[in-house]
Structure prediction request, 599 residues.
Amino acid sequence: MLERVKIENLSKGNILAFGEFYKNELNNSSLEILSPLKEVAQALNKKLILLFLIGSLEDIKNLEEIKRSIADEVWFVINNELKDFKDDLYTEVLIQIVKSSQPYGLFFPATKIGMSLTPRVAGALKVGLCAHVNYLEVKDNQIVMSRPTYGENIIAKLVSKSSPVMATISLGAFNIKYGEKEPLMKEIIFPENFSWSSKLKIRNFIPSKKKPTKLSTAKVVVSGGRGLKNKETFQKLFELAEILGAEVGATRPVCYEGWVEEEKMIGVSGVTVKPKVYIGFGISGALQHTVGMENSEFIIAVNTDKEAPLVKMANLALIGDAKKILELLLKKLKN
Amino acid sequence: MEKIIVCIKGVPEPGSVKVDPKTHTLKRESMELILNPNDRSALEMAVRLKNEYNMEIVAISMGPPNVIPLLKHAYALGIDQMVLLSDRAFAGSDTLATSYVLAEAIKKLSPFSLILMGLKSIDGETAQVPSETASLLGIPSLTNVKSLFMEDNKWIAIREIKYGEEEVEVEGPLVCSVLPTAFDYIRPPSLKRLLEVKNKEPMVWQASDLNLDSQRLGLNGSPTQVVEVIEKKIETKGVILEGEPEELVEKLIEVLKEKRLIKN
Ligand SMILES: Cc1cc2nc3c(=O)[nH]c(=O)nc-3n(C[C@H](O)[C@H](O)[C@H](O)COP(=O)(O)OP(=O)(O)OC[C@H]3O[C@@H](n4cnc5c(N)ncnc54)[C@H](O)[C@@H]3O)c2cc1C
Ligand SMILES: Cc1cc2nc3c(=O)[nH]c(=O)nc-3n(C[C@H](O)[C@H](O)[C@H](O)COP(=O)(O)OP(=O)(O)OC[C@H]3O[C@@H](n4cnc5c(N)ncnc54)[C@H](O)[C@@H]3O)c2cc1C
Prediction:
């Protein structure tokens, strides 16, 4: 069912998106990144290709999902050695594809695997790499990538002078879109003498015991920042979450302080949330945080500072002490 | 003795960031620098391996001369040699240019068995430098490593990935970025070594000491370029209420009921 294409006959000048499989399971962020890339590809009049490195086609559980993607084509490299993620071998395979198909752009989801792999590829190709991009646009026939950066509310726009343009794209920054037309599916045939060897041997795998956080899909989020002053007060958010059927989120400094695990971090370095209601206690609303929650339907901020950015962006802001308000709220709700 | 190289970065104290309005890069010379907090676990891992396998540790840092106190701090934690990579030509480097300088300095320190780095810096926060440096050196790399030991002259690493933990066997040398939460206990600096390092200075290598290609350095040698920095203006969008906590909570409860999060 797959059209077999020799690597030297691949079409050139496309936009390639890396699709992540792990233990035959598709990582959804691979489909998310197609949404902005499709627009970029259309603006530049290029084809969008979703590229997978896999052990065997039979094992893949989400083939239907892939057939519904908005990619123009899906390319597979299939070899038993690709069953496990091996940084060095994956890099070698991608380099061969880049060399023969000379893509215009090469993009990866900013997953742990993506973040391990992409810099190796960029290093080997000696090209620039933009990290954690959350907005892409085409200006003067050039891809311009945005990422939040130092300071409160500053966005940096970057371009890459080298080719292909490479970037990792933030998780949860885009919604998955589905296409009407099934993409063409191809298998890339590597030369006989290509070495599938790696210096890494995956000896053992222990699945994560931690439950995946439900934060990113939560309908209600109660979130806390430094304005809650200490871990004890922060922990009270869990009581509120229990009552409201919410998930608890946090800003980066309080995760680093150890008030709560890093999985709860909302923002560029953490999770993106889109709840119906977001309540932030003692959160200033730095851009690095707000990019992760700005699409919430209704935002409530509790802060002593009327000028805090989150207060300004909130639908409802309460000016007052976060601890007092939280405790009083809990008292009333429990009665 | 086998050698471990640890790369450490000086980062601005959070809140003290100054951005050069012209180049959009950080002005590191004029800032108070602290050790990148994530590099603490890389140093701790290095010291533990040194004690276990009788190895030698070299710490290197690329940055302005005000990272010297951070190298001395690393000495007090247990590293043996300090190398500062400092040259005006390095200023404004992106991760590719940074990794190029680090890789060339590491080559000069050959042979080595292991390179440890932090998972990511808290300023640039790209997490790209470890794998990119490994790639330029042509050696394997692993990220998010939480433990590391030797077996039959091979490195065995436990790395975290989204789905769980993998035990990976690697033929060294290799680069690992260390998980910030890898250790429950991180040792404080030793008083004896703090005194000892007072009379020591790091080796300083400039571009010319490393025979670097000037086309690949600094702002001009960096393929990623910041073209624009924009400030996001926020306009007040909703209702801002001031008053006694009692009143505010009343209003909050009203809204929560409206949103059907609590029953009437
Ligand atoms: C607005 C803006 C946006 C930027 N965006 C990008 C971008 O998208 N892509 C890009 O390539 N560059 C970018 N940069 C440049 C990047 O921040 C610098 O290249 C930086 O020197 C290295 O990257 P990092 O701090 O992200 O390191 P990371 O890769 O996050 O650091 C990981 C580890 O590498 C080691 N390490 C890193 N730097 C050094 C050092 N100087 N000396 C010793 N060890 C070190 C440390 O162990 C550290 O813990 C940007 C800069 C600015 C100003
Ligand atoms: C590269 C990089 C990446 C980052 N990534 C993230 C990220 O993913 N997520 C993230 O959240 N941050 C991130 N940050 C940090 C971000 O820039 C901010 O520093 C952080 O979001 C601020 O957290 P905060 O609101 O808890 O603290 P602060 O900014 O200190 O704000 C505390 C707020 O509480 C208010 N307050 C004080 N006392 C009270 C009181 N008694 N009652 C009520 N309110 C009170 C204050 O007025 C203030 O508005 C990143 C930073 C960098 C440089």
Observations:
- Chain B touches chain A through 79 residues (CB under 8 Å).
- The CA atoms of residues 153 and 171 of chain B lie 8 Å apart.
- Chain B is about 25% helix and 30% strand.
